[in-house]
Amino acid sequence: MKRFIPICALTVTMALPASAEEEGNKSLMEQGAELFFEGLRQEMEPALDELLGLAEQFGPAMQSFIAEMGPALAELADEIEDWSAYETPEILPNGDIIIRKKPPQDPEIQPEIPEAPPEGETEI
Q: Which domain of life is it from (predicted)?
């Protein structure tokens, strides 16, 4: 998709000088670009209509959710200074949601390496 937009822009800019030379008549490049964009519009129209329908369906529910939960979420955001200090939320089977704090990452503390068992003994 990132390459699509520059290609379209290049097509349109290439068609503009050609149409100026023909004084009113459309060049093949300009006609091709128009046909391409018309076909693209026709192909995208059902998806855009469906997206508009979803927005109309969920819009009122989202506005209600934001109106009710907005102040509570703002208070929570004020209390939490660093979101990266917490694990991702976990939903328990009973419906409770747990958000655990990550263990501190202190670079001076080295993890303990267990000692090797003395030679001749095998730990089972």
A: Bacteria
